[in-house]
Amino acid sequence: MGLFSTKDTDGDNEIAFNFHFPTSKNALIIFTRNPELGKCKTRLAKTIGDEAALEIYKHLLKHTASVSETVNADKFVFYSENIKKEDIWNASHFKKKLQNGSNLGERMENAFAELLNSGYQKTIIIGSDLLDLNSELINDAFKQLNHFDYVIGPAKDGGYYLLGMKTLNPNLFKNKNWGTASVLNDTLNNLQHSTVHLLKELNDIDTFEDIKPYNQLKKYYDTHH
């Protein structure tokens, strides 16, 4: 799987190789993009510009970090480009790793495989672009895995904001048009013979329409309009 290969020789990446013993039965994977100008929230940036989009993404990252901190699990932040030792992800709460794979499905599968193979009984992945996500919802997702094979948080755009499992199912990461409205249905089709708990539907933030309901984001783009 090439977990020890890295596409980036940034000095911080060596912490990805620290061996880790599970301290919980639960592992939470947080997938995040490095917050770089012009590289994140590109659909949103088309409307409000790169700088405002970057500020909104940083706001979303801070929200995700704060709700994740209190979740009852070992927490792993998987960065898209390179690992940062000093950032909003406090190293005393979050173990830091690098995403590995040629598309989102491969990167998620490798992250799940790594943690499930490390001895975790339940592993859940979340994205980092939901203001409606809270720690109660994530803790509930772990509890639901006591009774169900899988737990999924459906997103309003036809994808999902959370996916949890107890054993690796590679089919969930193959033959998907990532970032499109078909991902949730295609995933559920893979799970017809399993038990699945669906959490409440939430809105993830990709476009200008998505940010309009959130007053706390207005300060980032009002000056740009």
UniProtKB/TrEMBL annotation:
<protein>
    <submittedName>
        <fullName>TIGR04282 family arsenosugar biosynthesis glycosyltransferase</fullName>
    </submittedName>
</protein>
<dbReference type="InterPro" id="IPR018641">
    <property type="entry name" value="Trfase_1_rSAM/seldom-assoc"/>
</dbReference>
<dbReference type="Pfam" id="PF09837">
    <property type="entry name" value="DUF2064"/>
</dbReference>
<dbReference type="InterPro" id="IPR029044">
    <property type="entry name" value="Nucleotide-diphossugar_trans"/>
</dbReference>
